[in-house]
Design brief:
This protein is α/β, with parallel strands linked by helices and 303 residues long. Helix content is 41%, strand content 14%. The chain has a single domain, classed as Divalent-metal-dependent TIM barrel enzymes (TIM Barrel, Alpha-Beta Barrel).
């Protein structure tokens, strides 16, 4: 634990330093109902969390009832935990070619967006998709067509699509920042998109973040493609897979290939002070590992 070391820091009271960190938490289970995620997150001391809006391994779910939505939006935890974001289901591939997977992806993504909207969540993180051999350019065209089609049908929706930076495993799109820039350049609705940066993914994708100077260069390149204001959520994961491996393998903080300098840069950056920082690292039922990983992140940020 870092507390003793933090308390000894000259001129910086422990509580003040903690208060200056961005809201942090982890992806949290919705088993038993959406509102149960608040109980889990608060018991673990989160001030941010990410949830799936339905079972993430199935295409569709029965429509949510009013009482299910009310149990979430009126839960006492909602006022305490202001930074809650959604993540889309794993089957959805907006870059898929015409066919059943694309049809299902279109319907599922639309339903998940509307679920997140009904829960009052500001954004839903999504993996841009895999082109499955048809090429990046074709994949990007399909992604924009599918997501813009959904936006066309949901003009009053406030919930944003948050395109996630990816590791580049297989034929996934989003490991080069230019991919996200191309999506944003092609959409008719740039105001409905933002970006999620995953630290494990950018390292696996080969981006250089081993020092503060390297981070500055890499983040400037990303911001050049998408704009600083679009960075609205971070996934703080360590990576079991080495830099440039293009493999998506999450690891506990401090045990993998993401340099501490990268976590420190993000957690201390004044632009990211109010941005939710979400762990997606392995854990058991009691979420003890989340507590440990968050403590390590605080130690890195304040150390
Ligand atoms: Zn992620
Ligand atoms: Zn990942």
């Amino acid at each position: 634990m870092s507390v003793l070391r933090v308390c000894k820091m000259p001129g910086l009271a422990h509580s003040d330093a903690m208060e200056n960190l961005p809201p942090m938490g982890a992806h949290t289970s919705i088993a038993g109902g959406w509102e149960k995620s608040f109980d889990r997150a608060m018991a673990t001391g989160f001030d941010a969390m990410q949830i799936f809006v339905k079972n993430n391994r199935q295409w569709f779910a029965a429509p949510a009832t009013e009482s299910e939505v009310a149990a979430f939006v009126k839960h006492p935890g909602r006022k305490k935990l202001r930074h809650v974001v959604a993540h889309n289901g794993y089957l959805i591939n907006p870059a898929a070619a015409e066919g059943p997977v694309r049809d299902n992806s279109r319907r599922a993504m639309r339903e998940e967006l509307l679920r997140a909207e009904s829960l009052g969540l500001p954004l839903i993180v999504l993996h841009p998709g895999a082109h499955l051999g048809d090429g990046v350019e074709t994949g990007i065209r399909r992604i924009v067509e599918l997501l813009d089609g959904i936006i066309d049908e949901t003009p009053c929706c406030q919930c944003l699509f948050a395109l996630e930076t990816t590791a580049g495993q297989g034929t996934t799109i989003g490991h080069e920042f230019g991919h996200l820039g191309a999506i944003l350049a092609a959409t008719r609705f740039p105001e409905r998109y933002c970006v999620c940066l995953d630290t494990a993914h950018i390292v696996a994708a080969g981006h250089e973040v081993s020092s503060e100077a390297a981070c500055e260069k890499t983040f400037a390149a990303l911001a050049g493609e998408v704009g600083w204001e679009r960075l609205r959520v971070f996934h703080l994961n360590d990576s079991k897979a080495p830099q440039g491996s293009r493999k998506d393998r999450h690891e506990h903080i401090g045990m993998g290939h993401v340099p501490a300098a990268c976590f420190r840069y993000i957690l201390r950056h004044p632009k990211f002070r109010d941005i939710p920082m979400i762990l997606e690292t392995p854990k058991g039922e009691d979420m003890r590992e989340d507590v440990e990983n968050l403590a390590r992140l605080r130690e890195i940020a304040l150390g």
